[in-house]
Automatic annotation (TrEMBL):
<keyword id="KW-0472">Membrane</keyword>
<dbReference type="GO" id="GO:0005886">
    <property type="term" value="C:plasma membrane"/>
</dbReference>
<dbReference type="InterPro" id="IPR043202">
    <property type="entry name" value="Band-7_stomatin-like"/>
</dbReference>
<feature type="domain" description="Band 7">
    <location>
        <begin position="70"/>
        <end position="229"/>
    </location>
</feature>
<feature type="transmembrane region" description="Helical">
    <location>
        <begin position="51"/>
        <end position="75"/>
    </location>
</feature>
<keyword id="KW-1133">Transmembrane helix</keyword>
<comment type="similarity">
    <text>Belongs to the band 7/mec-2 family.</text>
</comment>
<keyword id="KW-0812">Transmembrane</keyword>
<dbReference type="InterPro" id="IPR001972">
    <property type="entry name" value="Stomatin_HflK_fam"/>
</dbReference>
<protein>
    <submittedName>
        <fullName>Band 7 protein AGAP004871-like isoform X1</fullName>
    </submittedName>
</protein>
<dbReference type="InterPro" id="IPR036013">
    <property type="entry name" value="Band_7/SPFH_dom_sf"/>
</dbReference>
<dbReference type="InterPro" id="IPR001107">
    <property type="entry name" value="Band_7"/>
</dbReference>
<dbReference type="InterPro" id="IPR018080">
    <property type="entry name" value="Band_7/stomatin-like_CS"/>
</dbReference>
<dbReference type="Pfam" id="PF01145">
    <property type="entry name" value="Band_7"/>
</dbReference>
Length: 322
């Protein structure tokens, strides 16, 4: 096993190095496929194969120009053609874009689309590291980077990449806590992209981007989290209300001290209150009675009561003396 280091840049600018192990068989196979363009198949081709090659050329010449419609092929700008001659990859690698020539009966070719493909990973039921079941889906953007390798190394490169994307999504989410999945989507997407790119490199596939679309929580867990959040908001609201009451009481105490120093300020406050009530066009106006007037009547009543008690006491004394 060989270990390679892959650098990935996260959304916050942090650079992480991920070590990936790759089998030696894959490396040797990739090198062998990449050297196909330099391999001279004619030197090692059997004599029977050479004979068929020459006979095919003669057949094309004899049936010209009708055979030209079968021999000349066209691939688009975004396509490549991988040609097999008698079951062996043809010298020079993939053909295209444009016109290329094949020999009838002995040549077969496969078209490979190099455009970026989008795969919508279906929702995967995952058990997180803290034993919470969530449903996660993602989107994978990938393309064929080496047409020859994608045809020769794997039966169906696209289907294999899609199955690997589902497995990688489940494995990655299974090693994370719930709060990490909800808050570190960019980091998880970057790690998944690196893992998929390393694994599919032997298939001629380049994974360009991985994005986590949605994380669905169970209904009971959603209700519990909503209740917890509501309780936290109510607690904060009560704390804020208590702080407001405390500040208001301090302000009222300071105002009472100012009014106590100047009794006329209370009368001005009464007049201001009357002005505010009259501006609202109410049919009923409550007129506040000055406290000083009440104090005067209370003092008069107390003086009268005290005087009456004194007179009654004097009468009682006079009657007792007689």
């Amino acid at each position: 096993m060989n270990t390679t280091n892959q650098e990935t840049t996260l959304s916050n600018g942090e650079i992480r190095i991920i070590s990936v192990q790759r089998d030696d068989d894959y490396r040797e196979r990739m090198l062998r496929i990449k050297r196909i363009s330099e391999y001279d198949a004619n030197d090692k081709a059997p004599t029977f194969g050479k004979l068929l090659h020459y006979l095919s050329i003669v057949l094309v010449i004899l049936t010209a120009p009708i055979s030209f419609f079968m021999c000349f092929k066209v691939v688009q700008e975004y396509e490549r053609a991988v040609i097999f001659r008698l079951g062996r990859l043809l010298q020079g690698g993939a053909r295209g874009p444009g016109i290329f020539f094949i020999l009838p009966c002995i040549d077969t070719y496969a078209r490979v689309d190099l455009r970026t493909r989008t795969y919508d990973v279906p929702p995967q039921e995952v058990l997180t590291k803290d034993s919470v079941t969530v449903s996660v889906d993602a989107v994978v953007y990938y393309r064929v980077s080496n047409a020859t390798v994608s045809v020769a190394n794997v039966e169906n490169a696209h289907h294999s990449t899609r199955l690997l994307a589902q497995t990688t999504l489940r494995n990655t989410m299974g090693t994370r806590h719930l709060h990490e999945i909800l808050s570190e989507r960019q980091t998880i997407s970057g790690n998944m992209r690196v893992q998929l790119d390393e694994a599919t490199d032997a298939w001629g596939i380049k994974v360009e981007r991985v994005e986590i679309k949605d994380v669905r929580l169970p209904v009971q867990l959603q209700r519990a989290m909503a209740a917890e959040a509501e309780a936290a908001r109510e607690a904060r609201a009560k704390v804020i209300a208590a702080e407001g009451e405390q500040k208001a009481s301090r302000a009222l105490r300071e105002a009472s001290e100012v009014i106590g120093d100047s009794p006329a300020a209370l009368q001005l406050r009464y007049l201001q209150t009357l002005n505010t009530i009259s501006a609202e066009k109410n049919s009923t106006i409550v007129f506040p009675l000055p406290i000083d007037l009440l104090t005067y009547f209370m003092k008069t009543h107390e003086a009268a009561t005290l005087f009456g008690n004194n007179n009654q006491q004097q009468l009682s004394d006079m009657q007792s003396s007689m």
